[in-house]
């Protein structure tokens, strides 16, 4: 886990409590390795751009004043965490699209991981994801850790949601990446790594269209294929069979149920495709999966992923 030495933390401008920064500090302390944390905020107020009574220089001075105030606030929050092992750099930029500014910072300073807080809606008792969250999940080139309200206790559980039934080489490579990440996090958190895989139920209408079709035999064959594939994967990492879970059902429901049963502190998901969330975790599937989890979520990209916001990328 020493690879996470450059950590970008997105500040929450609406509260003094900063769970994402606290999580970054916890990660560095448990990793016992020096790190540089960039405490980052992109701010924008359209009213400053529309003040026609002010000159361009006056508007620029107002923007700088707002940025300076935010920097002072963030420096005050950061002071309590700074130590010989932890260096925190505060950076505030003026930008009307926070996700673009954040991803640009990832590229410009070559960050190893992005950490951002999600918001808890007390009325609905659910986590609210902003458009910025989804843009970052889809377009950020480095791992994205979304911090929720769940603690990171000792002797907890870390889950990697793998897709062992796929014949796609990208999925295979991503499976290994997720397992390695789960093991690494488990080591620094003194936790137990688990692997979960969902496989589909037999389509209900197939027995009507094909009367000779035996759904029991089909289900057994599918389950057997996934069990064999999971065994091959876990044995490569010496993970005991009791720490693997092959479950029939919808992907997001299986991940949610197993994570609740294990009271997991972290679930690791893979995102594939040119712009991130697709394939197994595509559209509503990904969003529903993350929405249902009450623990931190780490989203990983496959090797060779190209962000649409990469400054070197030409559409």
CATH class wording of the largest domain: Alpha Beta
The fold-level CATH name of the largest domain is Rossmann fold
**Which range does the strand content fall in?**
15-25%
Number of helices: 10
Strand order of the largest sheet: 3-2-1-4-7-12-11-8-9-10
Q: What does the largest sheet look like?
A: 10 strands, mixed
Q: Give start-end ranges of low-pLDDT stretches.
A: 121-125, 273-284
Task: Report helical residue fraction.
Answer: 40-55%
Radius of gyration: 22 Å
Helices and strands, in order, run as: EHEHHEHEEEHEEHEHHEHEHE
CATH-scheme architecture of the largest domain = 3-Layer(aba) Sandwich
Number of domains: 2
N-end to C-end Cα span: 34 Å
Identify the overall geometry.
Answer: elongated
Query: How many DSSP-defined strands?
Result: 12
Quick tags:
single chain; alpha/beta; Rossmann fold; two-stranded antiparallel ribbon; 10 helices
What this model shows, in words?
There is one protein chain. With 315 residues, this protein is of the alpha/beta class. It folds into two domains: 1-147, Rossmann fold (3-Layer(aba) Sandwich), CATH 3.40.50.12370; 150-315, Rossmann fold (3-Layer(aba) Sandwich). The chain contains ten helices and twelve strands. It has helices at residues 19-31, 46-49, 56-78, 98-109, 131-139, 169-189, 206-209, 215-236, 251-262, 284-292, and strands spanning 6-10, 35-43, 86-94, 113-117, 119-121, 126-128, 144-147, 157-161, 192-199, 244-248, 266-270, 296-300. A ten-stranded mixed beta sheet has the order 3-2-1-4-7-12-11-8-9-10, sandwiched between helices. Strands 5-6 form a two-stranded antiparallel sheet.
